[in-house]
Amino acid sequence: MNSSLSPILNKIEPGDKGVMELARKRQDSLTKPRGSLGKLEDVSVRVAGMRRCITSTFDNKAIVVMAADHGVVAEGVSAYPQEVTRQMVYPLLTGCAAVNVFARHIGARVVVVDMGVIGGFEPNPLLECKSVAFGTANMAQGAAMTREQAIDAVEAGIAVIESQIAEGLDIVGTGEMGIGNTTAASAICAAVSGRSAADVTGRGTGIDNKQLLHKVEVINRALEINRPDSNDAIDVLSKVGGFEIGGLAGVILGAAANRIPVVIDGFIAGAAAIIAVKLSPQVKDYLIASHLSVECGHRIMLEYIGLQPLLSLDMRLGEGTGAALGISLVEASIKILREMKTFDETGVSDKDTES
Amino acid sequence: MNSSLSPILNKIEPGDKGVMELARKRQDSLTKPRGSLGKLEDVSVRVAGMRRCITSTFDNKAIVVMAADHGVVAEGVSAYPQEVTRQMVYPLLTGCAAVNVFARHIGARVVVVDMGVIGGFEPNPLLECKSVAFGTANMAQGAAMTREQAIDAVEAGIAVIESQIAEGLDIVGTGEMGIGNTTAASAICAAVSGRSAADVTGRGTGIDNKQLLHKVEVINRALEINRPDSNDAIDVLSKVGGFEIGGLAGVILGAAANRIPVVIDGFIAGAAAIIAVKLSPQVKDYLIASHLSVECGHRIMLEYIGLQPLLSLDMRLGEGTGAALGISLVEASIKILREMKTFDETGVSDKDTES
Question: Which burial class, exposed, middle or buried, applies to A306 when counting CB atoms under 10 A from its CB (0-12, 13-18, 19+)?
């Protein structure tokens, strides 16, 4: 059915259990109580399975930030005006948005992609143009996009990440910018998980109680009118998704197909991860959840996928800010495997493992 | 009563509320929804109050790792033999312990201090010798140390940090190594918080259920025999503490007196923080909790002091591993204040703040 996506979907293999076992054995032999680095040990083992190597290095890190507009903003679901999507692309390009600060902090590049911002942009060497259309249609009145547009968005994301991988990228974080996109992410979460819109809808950039009730009502209307098929990820994406969400799903698929770890950001990046996992369940083996957003649907998303977040900082900014901080933790976890010594190597007495 | 500590205690001033207000205003004016960086915004505001500057830089970071032995190990409270304290000092010095890996990852130095390891060490330029004695006495049979030794340990910690500050240190993490020291930390936590030993005692390096019950019984015996005075921090430290715990309390006091942020590690570093806060409540303004340990008493400690941890990675290693990762987050939070631009500076439309 999604025949143009078949080659990439067929290329995605599960993480390598043999290498994961080697990584676990090494973690257990290092001079520290077994398991004492908690979630970071698990992350290092999973990354070993992704990379087929227990001592990976990450020399080429990027946060891919995809921007697009959402027709549903016409319903008054956001605290900020629609033009902020476009306006925020410039700080992203000049390096003064929050994600740029965190990316520099961890030694990563920021790759900014226009997936469908209203009005588009003048050609700019720092901005990748993959615009599918000038914003989605209003999902409260019909499908957000056509099925073809949904596939175009996913394919654009695959092209972006494959070009980055060709340049040497070895770990990627997913980020986004799009006024109205928590509404799309909530709708995707509700459609796929079967939870009510009220359960998965939060305050986004900061709406009040009255606006929150209205946002839930808009999402219910969108789900009612569109009736997305939860077994068909492209149907869900086209009916209640967004171009940046489709693009990030493509980034995830392309990374997984090339055995590149993907550190996902918050709620909107989580919606993209759900679309990708629905297209290929093996994708999960390549995903690391960076943080738990304050958006109430995010926990439901991560449980649906089966991921545990590393950070819980009450963040709700998006852009890939959590992903950047998460990449640094992933890198730290792998450095433990690479740089620590074992009980045998150091002559430190191990715990009596017979007891 | 602790007259020799009075000069440093008198030097500790609260964080500067005026500078904190300036930092909060700047956070609120940056191109992101207000509050959207969650705990990191709060940390940046608190650090501004500590440093009297909203755009600090951290160019000289260190983790101070203090090692000492504990007489209570004779009661069989640990999964590892006592000589591991001594053995683990060597990986710390050669840079292959877990904290060294994380310190390199975040660009920090590791300062290793012998506060009282059995047998001591040959002179080594990489190791600071502040040994109070070759291990504490067995707290299950009497006081762990004399009152004089407790004050000596705190003063040694003050000397260590003041020497580091003289060399330019601008942020410090606290770490430790000492077989048996979760027993001391649990006893301190119980003595000060009034909670039962069972509530605040965990598995340390990895003991089983039977050993855990025994550990609780040993702590109860130590509290019964010693009856530490919860209103006298030096009494608590001398009766059920440890030399590295006293030393870290001194590091904290010395840092606070010099307006240096202290990122505290896990359970044992938390016990040192409790001693320091008991000696001077203003110290709290200079403390940042890096992570929540799996040791059950750690949450009780942090609540007692009034701190929220940044990371929750199910770690229980000590050495300052959590502190190192926490320092990186503190630095990221301050870079936001320094490197992001405001709505006015970028021309991005702000949310209608009247609504």
Answer: exposed
Nearest by Cα to A242 from A165, A298, A186, A292: A186
A36·B315 Cβ contact <8 A:
yes
The ipTM estimated for the assembled molecules is 0.96
pLDDT single digits (tens) A138-149: 999 999 999 999
Of A91, A105, A314, the CB nearest to B341: A91
CB-based contact A206 B34, cutoff 8 Å = yes
For chain B, what is the mean pLDDT?
96
Say if residue A248's pLDDT is above 90: yes
Q: Where in chain A is the domain with CATH 1.10.1610.10?
A: 3-55+338-346
Stretch(es) of chain B classified as CATH 3.40.50.10210: 61-330
B283 Cβ neighbours under 8 A, 6+ residues apart: B12, B252, B253, B256, B273, B276, B277
Confidence of residue B350 (pLDDT cuts 50, 70, 90): confident
Q: Which residue has the higher pLDDT, A353 or B16?
A: B16
pTM, entire model: 0.96
CA A314 to CA A301: how far, in whole Å?
16
Of residues A87, A98, A351, nearest to B340 (C-beta): A98
Active site residue A319: yes
Interface mutation target, options B104, B313, B333, chain A, most CBs of A under 10 Å: B313
SS3 A113: strand
Domain A3-55+338-346 class in CATH? mainly alpha
Please, are residues A248 and A176 in contact by the beta-carbon 8 Å criterion? yes
How far apart are the C-alpha atoms of B42 and B27, rounded to whole Å?
Answer: 9
Q: Indicate the DSSP class of residue B232.
A: -
Q: Is the dihedral of CA A169, A310, A85, A157 positive or negative?
A: positive
DSSP states of B191-229 as a string?
A: HHH---HHHH---TTT--HHHHHHHHHHHHHHHHHH---
The CA-based diameter of chain A, rounded to the nearest angstrom, is 69
Number of Cβ within a 10 Å radius of residue A347: 11
Confidence of residue B3 (pLDDT cuts 50, 70, 90): confident
Calpha distance A332→A57 (Å, rounded): 10
pLDDT of residue A352: 57
| Domain B61-330 of CATH type 3.40.50.10210 | yes
